[in-house]
Write a structure and sequence with these properties.
two-stranded antiparallel ribbon; 3 helices; alpha+beta; 81 residues; 2 strands; extended
Length: 81
Amino acid sequence: MNIADFFHFFIATVQLHRHESFSREEIVRHQNAALRKLRKYALRHSPFYREFYSGKENSPLQELPVFLFTITKSGPCFLLP
């Protein structure tokens, strides 16, 4: 393990221990912040998500349309609502 790997491991361990003492409200805030960050990344880097969720970028998660994805012999298949 090199010094950079050790440093990343150490930081992750410190963050994990800090999160263990979160209150319920802090957990919800942390989860919402992580979800906003993930959605922002997906919209920025995925043409599919950008188009599929166009106009719904700030909608609550439970209000977003859901799509189904399956793999068939002929290739991927999206079952959109």
